[in-house]
Amino acid sequence: MIPMKTSSIFKSRWMALIWAAGILWVAWDVAGSTPQDTNNSANAEGPTDVTGAPITVDDEKKFENALNGL
Hints:
By secondary structure, the chain is an all-alpha fold. The protein contains 3 helices and no strands. The protein has a domain at about 1-30. The radius of gyration is 25 Å and the shape is elongated.
């Protein structure tokens, strides 16, 4: 993963700083540098079952009763 020996990276302070900057850059790139949209509720869909039908409160109560019956 590292293109050189790890023992040679930390012999020089500058190489260590460049290596650390690379690690931070990769973390920034992986985590996503763009801010997330704060208004997610307008675009969010409600929960659905396997068939794609929306889950109702009655369905939730049936599921809870089935779990309690175990």
